[in-house]
Specification:
This protein has an eight-stranded mixed sheet with strand order 5-4-3-6-1-7-10-9. It has a two-stranded antiparallel sheet with strand order 2-8. The chain is 27% helix and 32% strand. α1 runs parallel beside α3. The chain has a single domain, classed as Dihydrofolate Reductase, subunit A (3-Layer(aba) Sandwich).
Length: 193
């Protein structure tokens, strides 16, 4: 049985995963209790996280600078921190400041293909844009989970999520609305030929 791989990403309406300037604040200041409860439930399920070097470093730095009671750490992030994790990198060094993390050196496409064949639990990656664009192109992403925040960051947006990605047809398989403004859209991607 092949494990399901989910590329989970937060996005602005204009396709940015984060902001490079401005005073938006986390989640662009739009999160609410419904969104946070859903994220906690999603990350409380058995699964394995998969990170590339940059996103892993960002999370590790954020988590090291906070604790479970800190306002900087949401409950779902604490749950994510406790999940078994694979870090794919040739630049990250051990020891990893993560409770159950394994460092794997190699091409992400090869590593994730092997993980999909061997894992007994679903795989999930939050962020990791360049790695997940490569996995999409290789046909290894089963679910594309986009959480769409109601903002446009045309002046302050950083990191376009799908910059340079291949073309894909998307089949909508689930959708939800949280706090009357945040949309979660889950798609099955298929390379457009």
């Amino acid at each position: 049985m092949t494990a399901t791989y989910t590329f989970d990403v937060f996005s602005t309406l204009d396709g940015f995963a984060n902001y490079s300037a401005g005073d938006w604040g986390g989640y662009w200041g739009k999160q609410g209790p419904g969104f946070e409860e859903h994220r906690l439930a999603s990350y409380s399920e058995k699964q394995r996280m998969v990170f590339g070097a940059n996103t892993f470093r960002q999370f590790a730095e954020m988590l090291a600078a906070s604790d479970e009671r800190s306002e900087a750490r949401d409950s779902w992030v604490t749950e994510m921190f406790e999940l078994p994790t694979t870090v794919i990198s040739t630049t990250v060094e051990t020891p990893l400041d993560w409770p159950d993390a394994t460092l794997v050196s190699g091409d992400a496409v090869d590593v994730v293909a092997q993980l999909k064949d061997e894992s007994q639990v679903p795989l999930r990656s939050h962020g990791c844009l360049s790695m997940n664009r490569a996995l999409l192109a290789a046909g290894l992403v089963d679910r594309l989970q986009v959480t769409l925040f109601p903002v446009i960051t045309g002046q302050t947006g950083g990191d376009l999520i799908f910059r340079g990605a291949a073309d894909f047809d998307l089949e909508l398989i689930e959708s939800r609305t949280f706090d009357a403004s945040i949309q979660e859209l889950i798609y099955r991607p298929t390379l457009h030929v």
